[in-house]
Amino acid sequence: MSDATTERSRTGEDGVLQRLSLLDRFLPVWIVAAMLVGLALGRWVPGVTEGLDSVKVGETSLPIALGLLLMMYPVLAKVRYEEIGHLTSDRRMLWLSLVLNWVIGPALMFTLAWTFLADQPEFRTGVIVVGLARCIAMVLIWNDLSRGDREAGALLVAVNSVFQIGAYALLGTFYLKWLPEWLGLGGEDVTFSTWDITKAVLVFLGIPLVAGYLTRRIGIARRGTDWYEEVFLPRIGPVALYGLLFTIVVLFGLQGEAITSDPSSVARIALPLLVYFAVMWVVAFEMSRRAGLTYERTATVAFTAAGNNFELAIAVSVGVWGVTSGQALAGVVGPLIEVPVLVALVYVSLWLRRRLTFHTPTTVGSTR
């Protein structure tokens, strides 16, 4: 490897955190701060818990619903829906991503949930729900930092977004009801209806998906792609984080008593998630490399497979089991674990880029 190449690689690894925005770089700090604020409000401010829990339509808390919709809309406005059809040019990558995201990923999370949380049905269900929600947001950041294929990342995110609308409720029923019964594990301690999951997906993914799609089509038609990508998206991007932090404050405000009385619960939820991110990324990375993908597309498939859509998981858990449920708490703990783990995996990916052999871009037509 030449000195110039070595220098570029070293600079790429050293600059990972510097290339994150201030908000993204300190995301774990903001999440922890939001948790502490929520716990403080719920524990020491009289009437806050009752007030937040009283503003609802049916079983859906309006403050939580507002936060969830704010989380989802900016992410879905970034998806390049018009380029989904281009995926057919690399069917090997598409099929590999579909198998990893919708077969291996949920099955792995199901196994880990029953291994680590067999005696905690609410947490176990919440972790499985996380495993069913494929990442459509932060994965674009991890993909870019690891020098993955930017266009392929956007396309896989688009496919996952559309696929989740149709498949999420069915997979939820399979992994929460049918499979435990077939395996003799029992599942009677978890009650839900398929329609409840479908309704939560349609409201908290369907509405922002339609809004994001229309925003993109109208915005590009009226002002052009450059304005939309370079001006509009950066303006609305932070709204997703604000929505996430607002939702965490409300959730922890409502769950403060349960958390402070049993802090080990957070650690128990974190363990299977930690194992999941590491195993899923390694498996996806090696399968992609062995399948003959370039480094850029190998990294893209690995981060797309390892990341999860916690916004949707939180929305489904809140909509189906309630804002104070253990399932909702499992979803909230997710981003606290995901962010530092995937930042570390970005460094691992860049390190492997220099030490392993990949197909060259000219062989299969990588875009970067």
From TrEMBL:
Coiled-coil spans in chain: none
Subcellular location field: Cell membrane
InterPro entries associated with the record: Arsenical-R_Acr3, BilAc:Na_symport/Acr3, Na+/solute_symporter_sf
Pfam families tied to this protein: SBF
Taxonomy, superkingdom: Bacteria
Protein's name in the database: ACR3 family arsenite efflux transporter
Gene assigned in the entry: arsB
GO process annotations (BP): response to arsenic-containing substance
Record PANTHER family: ARSENICAL-RESISTANCE PROTEIN 3, ARSENITE EFFLUX TRANSPORTER
NADP listed as a keyword: no
Statement: the UniProt record of this protein carries the keyword Cell membrane: yes
Upper classification of the organism: Bacteria, Bacillati, Actinomycetota, Actinomycetes, Propionibacteriales
Predominant localisation class: membrane
Transmembrane parts of this sequence: 26-44, 64-81, 93-117, 123-142, 154-177, 197-215, 236-254, 266-287, 299-322, 328-352
Protein's membrane topology: Multi-pass membrane protein
Keywords, comma-separated and alphabetical: Arsenical resistance, Cell membrane, Membrane, Transmembrane, Transmembrane helix, Transport
GO CC, alphabetical: plasma membrane
A GO molecular-function descriptor: antimonite transmembrane transporter activity
Entry's family note: Belongs to the arsenical resistance-3 (ACR3) (TC 2.A.59) family.
